[in-house]
């Protein structure tokens, strides 16, 4: 949860009484010092809304961590230094469209659709435009992509030679809330599979990607698609979440 900040006295830096002053993002701000007693926070009605916000923020943070870990070796290539916080914020917004009441809301396929177009590395220039079709065959863990290469990436935006097109899926467990959040399919939570493809092999073609070991995915399992590309000269690539599957 963000602390409320107010504009502070010009060039004041340090602590005075129960206030602290410091420089942040080009301006001087102030905030009140103080910690809420844990027992009061857990029990008093005045903190009910804060407890609900904290509950959902914690859930969003956990799912963001699982998605980032699911990128495997591509995490270093795709994610920027602010990816963690931005992804948590995006998942918090998804939860607002989720099922249940505030503080107990859970992710659904429709709410995770709000991740579509999320840039894993915001510092890389370029615009995400998705005009292709994704189909996820859960019975055989197959991923079908239809469309032209140009809808996946445009190397002119960077001037670098693209080495691999990368597509994949990160699996997420559905949830239940009973005095707290609990995973319904814990053994599947965070599992992923990715494919690296030569971009010259996919121009104008449809793709059917199959894992070596085919598994039937359980009913209700959530999934998000990821796509991106790496550069031949070794610099970090670009990647996006294409939404829920």
List keywords for this structure.
flat; four-stranded antiparallel sheet; 5 helices; five-stranded antiparallel sheet; alpha+beta; Immunoglobulin-like; 245 residues; single chain
What does this structure look like?
By secondary structure, the chain is an alpha+beta fold. The protein has a single domain, classed as Immunoglobulin-like, CATH 2.60.40. 21% of the residues lie in helices and 29% in strands. The protein has 5 helices and 14 strands. The strands form 4 sheets. The protein has a 5-stranded antiparallel β-sheet with strand order 5-14-13-8-11. A hairpin with a 2-residue loop joins strand 2 and strand 3. Helix 2 packs across helix 4. It starts with 5 loop residues before the first strand and ends with a strand. The N terminus is likely disordered.
Quick one: overall form?
flat
- The chain-level structural class is alpha+beta
- Supply the number of helical segments: 5
Output mean pLDDT. 76
How does the major sheet shape up?
Answer: 5 strands, antiparallel
Order of helices and strands: EEEEHHHHHEEEEEEEEEE
Poorly predicted segments: 1-9, 149-157
The fourth-level CATH homologous superfamily is Immunoglobulins
The total tally of domains equals 1
Strand order of the largest sheet: 5-14-13-8-11
Helix content: 10-25%
Portion in strands: 25-35%
């Amino acid at each position: 949860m963000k602390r409320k900040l107010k504009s502070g006295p010009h060039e004041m830096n340090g602590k005075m009484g129960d206030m602290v002053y410091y420089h942040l993002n080009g301006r001087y701000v102030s905030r009140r010092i103080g910690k809420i007693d844990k027992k009061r926070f857990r029990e008093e009605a005045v903190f009910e809304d804060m407890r609900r916000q904290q509950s959902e923020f914690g859930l969003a943070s956990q799912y963001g961590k699982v998605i980032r870990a699911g990128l495997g070796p591509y995490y270093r290539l795709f994610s920027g230094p602010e990816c963690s916080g931005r992804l948590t914020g995006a998942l918090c917004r998804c939860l607002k469209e989720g099922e249940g009441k505030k503080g107990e809301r859970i992710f659904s396929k429709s709410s995770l659709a709000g991740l579509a177009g999320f840039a894993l590395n915001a510092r890389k220039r370029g615009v995400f435009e998705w005009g292709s079709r994704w189909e996820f065959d859960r019975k055989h863990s197959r991923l079908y992509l239809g469309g032209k290469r140009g809808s996946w990436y445009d190397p002119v935006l960077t001037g670098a030679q693209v080495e691999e097109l990368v597509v994949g899926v990160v699996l997420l467990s559905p949830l239940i809330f009973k005095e707290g959040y609990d995973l319904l399919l814990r053994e599947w939570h965070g599992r992923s599979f990715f494919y690296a493809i030569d971009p010259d092999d996919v121009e104008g073609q449809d793709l059917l990607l199959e894992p070596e070991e085919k598994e039937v995915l359980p009913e209700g399992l959530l999934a998000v698609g990821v796509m991106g590309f790496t550069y031949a000269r070794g610099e970090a690539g670009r990647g996006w979440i294409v939404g829920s599957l």
